[in-house]
Amino acid sequence: MKKISLLYIEDDKDIQEIYLDVIEREVDIVHLASDGEEGFEKYLEIKPNIILLDINMPKLDGLSLAKKIREIDGDVKIIITTAYADQDKLLQAIELYLIKYILKPIEPTILTEALQKAKNEIVEIQKEQEPTVKIFTLDEDSKWNFDTEKLYEQNVEVKLTKNERRLLKLLSTDKNKVFTFFEIFDHISYDDFDKDYDAGQVRALVKLLRKKVPKASILNIYGEGYRFNPISEHILKVSDIEA
């Protein structure tokens, strides 16, 4: 997961210092600002995951700053602190989709819970956005990584020629489709416009590829063409593979 950053906007330096220890235990990177205008400039510069700000700040108050940020960013997690239980401000804050509206003096446990809630939401979003790869199991020893176009046997990469890789990639785009000789020839020869159609070349290429993959993973459909026949197919997170 990516490091989680927080922008803490508070004009009272003493209060900032009091809560920095709590904040630094929960997030990876902390940026500080002392008023609303500086806070907005820092936000634009660093695009933090979380913003912790006070309502009563010079130059630009916290609610106005939060509204300004929400107009351009619906994802950043915002936590607002205030010394006053003002119902009107509370109602305005609710419309800003906050993680928490915290009254001062801030209880460290309440701040910790708010930060953890924000982190959990961020981690879930990061998981959803994490890149994936499609892995086909061809037999107990052989796997084909569709996205990297790499073939492995017992976790060792099997070297493929350009055309062998193109053929396996094409067949694995749809394991339920029978690809005709002409479709295969057209695909492997797309960068060679002068080449005449040759079904024999397709058969020869399939024969060579079958020496590198389990034979049953490429089926010959008589009179039609070839179909990919893996044992299973899995969509995996890149981080799971790297781990």
Describe the protein's architecture and organization.
The protein has 243 residues and is of the alpha/beta class. It folds into two domains: 125 residues, Rossmann fold (3-Layer(aba) Sandwich); 111 residues, Winged helix-like DNA-binding domain superfamily/Winged helix DNA-binding domain (Arc Repressor Mutant, subunit A), CATH 1.10.10.10. 41% of the residues lie in helices and 24% in strands. The strands form three sheets. Strands 2-1-3-4-5 form a five-stranded parallel β-sheet, with helices on both faces. The protein has a five-stranded antiparallel β-sheet with strand order 9-8-7-6-13.
Q: Profile the largest sheet.
A: 5 strands, parallel
Strand order of the largest sheet: 2-1-3-4-5
Strand content: 15-25%
CATH architecture level-2 label of the largest domain: 3-Layer(aba) Sandwich
Number of strands: 13
SSE class: alpha/beta
Q: Tell me, what's the shape?
A: elongated
From the structure provided, what is the oligomeric state, counting identical versus distinct chains? single chain
Q: Would you list the SSEs in sequence order as H and E? A: EHEHEHEHEHEEEEHEHHEEEH
In short:
This protein is an alpha/beta fold and 243 residues long.
List the helices and strands and how they pair.
Blueprint: E1 5-9, H1 13-26, E2 29-33, H2 36-46, E3 50-54, H3 62-70, E4 77-82, H4 87-94, E5 100-103, H5 108-129, E6 132-137, E7 142-145, E8 150-153, E9 156-158, H6 162-171, E10 179-180, H7 181-188, H8 199-210, E11 218-221, E12 225-228, E13 232-237, H9 238-242
Parallel strand pairs: 1-2, 1-3, 3-4, 4-5
Antiparallel strand pairs: 6-7, 6-13, 7-8, 8-9, 10-12, 11-12
Helix pairs in contact: 1-5, 2-3, 6-8, 7-8
